[in-house]
Design a protein that fits this description.
Helix content is 33%, strand content 26%. The protein is α/β, with parallel strands linked by helices. The chain has one domain (4-242): Rossmann fold, CATH 3.40.50.300. The strands form two sheets. A six-stranded mixed beta sheet has the order 6-7-8-3-9-10, with helices on both faces. Strands 2-1-4-5 form a four-stranded antiparallel beta sheet. Strand 7, helix 6 (171-186) and strand 8 (190-194) form a beta-alpha-beta unit. Helix 4 (113-125) packs across helix 5 (141-154). The radius of gyration is 18 Å and the shape is globular. It starts with a strand and ends in a 6-residue tail after the last helix.
Length: 248
């Protein structure tokens, strides 16, 4: 179907002979905010990286809008975990966001005045317009995450992949980020978020991908966020999830 824009088929990943993901299959529709959940070590970050070609696959195929990844790469924005970013790199906020315009520039082209104006608009969307000249390393965790979201917005992407965007951020920043992700969804963008806080799942996401090295379930939150499926993924007693209101 045309609306099923992200398709992952038979995806497996191994590191040094150890299988990290095994035969993952799912399809996601356009205009959804999708949470990727599962216990620590379940392969959530690997799933995003393998889907985007950032780590090698043992097997499998990923298509976006029915096309291979290489044909739609400039339509994809990726926000890595904060722990994987070099915050000592000497770059200021406005230049960090301006990097988001580069995938849409022609070869050897420099950002135009319009590109710089757009980068500032993206900073305004995340409430960071007063920090344009700050070094990225000077910011708090929440501010840094807002800046990287602004960089993703600057790409004018159709598909957004965010790896643990709420780790180490303040409550206000988390609220800003969630509202922007929901706005992107409402604009018809497709947004994937690796997430670990189960108490926020029902209020944040439309669909879930639940994994623990293998796919436990994928689909609407009310179908996947059920005690029996959570138990299968997390290997914890059902009553642990019932106490969180799972499936209530």
């Amino acid at each position: 179907m045309a609306d099923q824009v992200v398709s992952v088929r038979n995806l497996s990943v191994s590191y040094y002979g150890k299988e990290v993901l095994k035969n993952i299959n799912f399809t996601c529709e356009r205009g959804k905010l999708i949470g990727i959940i599962g216990p620590n070590g379940a392969g959530k970050s690997t799933l995003i990286k393998a889907s985007l070609g950032l780590v090698p696959k043992s097997s499998g195929q990923v298509t976006i809008g029915g096309r291979p990844l290489k044909e739609v790469r400039n339509k994809i924005a990726y926000v890595p975990q904060r722990a994987n970013i070099d915050w000592d790199f000497p770059i200021i906020v406005k230049d960090t966001v301006l990097l988001g315009t580069y995938p849409n520039l022609g070869l050897f082209r420099r950002p135009s005045k319009a590109d710089k104006k757009w980068a500032l608009e993206c900073l305004e969307k995340v409430g960071m317009e007063d920090f344009t000249k700050n070094q990225i390393g000077e910011l708090s965790g929440g501010q840094q995450q807002r800046v990287f979201l602004a960089r993703a917005l600057a790409q004018r992407a159709e598909y957004f992949f965010l790896d643990e965007p709420f780790v180490g951020v303040d409550v206000a920043s988390e609220e800003v980020i969630v509202n922007i992700l929901k706005s992107l969804r409402d604009e018809g963008k497709t947004v994937f978020v690796v997430h670990h806080d189960l108490t926020k799942v029902e209020s944040y996401f439309d669909d879930l991908i639940l994994i623990n090295k293998e796919l436990i379930g994928a689909g609407p939150v009310d179908r996947i966020f059920r005690p029996e499926l959570m138990q299968a993924a997390y290997k914890s007693p059902v009553h642990m999830f019932e106490s969180l209101g799972v499936g209530m």
